[in-house]
Amino acid sequence: MMVFKMAAVDVVLNFASRIFDQDFGDSGEIDCAKCQILKDYLKLAATELKSAQQVIKILYEERAELNNLKNHVNPTNVTNRIPVNVRCWKKKSVKVNHISEISDKVKHKIRIVGDSHAGGLANELKGKLTLDFETQGLVKPGSPVGELVHLTDSDLKDLTMNDVCVVWGGSNDVGRNEPNLGMRALKQIISSLNHTNAIVINVPPRYDLASNSCVNDEVQKFNRKLVNLEKAYLNLSIVTVDSNRDLFTRHGLHLNSQGKAYTAKRLATVINGLFTISKSVPIVLKWRCLGDAQHWVQDLEAHGQEDKADKINMEIKKPQQEDKGGGKEEDRESENLSEGEQTMRTCEGVVGGEGGL
């Protein structure tokens, strides 16, 4: 096609050249003004045609060179990968991974299972517990308690009495007017967690509804049943959500960040209480010990043993000596005894050492 156009241009140029090369003489018709103007236009057209011919020729040559270049270039695979510098692969010092050390310190695993209310609770709780606790959450928004049963069956079998499973659900059951189904499923979950500690968070009030709505009435009934449920299971604890309106979102259905942090704080207190060993010290009433000693005195006097009675009276009236340290083992042991206990021990020694009554 390109060759055909170039040939046409050559024909026009040859034809125009033959016309311009003709000698028309000095005829007045040829030399008229209009013919001169036409002759100038033809010359201009011939010049433009020559320029166009040169441009077409140059383009044709460039296209031919481009085709030759494509035929001689070796095909290569183009990728977006950065070339690897072999020299950079040198042996580097290996950093110590502290994750294994942290996992060795974990003594208690905390697993949180619940609906949308439980979202973000694991992170809040993690900041309120020590490194002895590992916290993870399994949240299924919009689910009733019955759908949480499958989560507890499959993921919580490895928990022990050193661990805790937190369940937060029931709001969707109450909202669907199915509180009995929710309570039944909750009992099933707690029964399946008899190998570990279980904590249930009660259902928060619905501030997106009127306070006297039937849903909020059912919420209160559901929470009262939870309190009774705690009495039936030894491994169960109940955490109550604060009902302060400022702890809920503007919509009123969920807790805001402050409410979630406050709930996590209450939950952390209960969890720490499960694993805190408390030493209970019996409280001995002083008047009871002294009263028994005086009763002994009366019995001794009634049986004619005034000597023993006088010794016991002396022990009762003797002021308690302060321990100045460095004493005998008996003195160090008496530090933990009240004044009444020390008196009773002395009285027993007096009575028992001399044959009794």
UniProtKB/TrEMBL annotation:
Residues 307-357 are annotated as: Disordered. It comes from the Eukaryota. CDD domains: SGNH_hydrolase. This is Uncharacterized protein. It comes from Cryptotermes secundus. InterPro entries: SGNH_hydro_sf. Residues 307-335 have a biased composition (Basic and acidic residues).
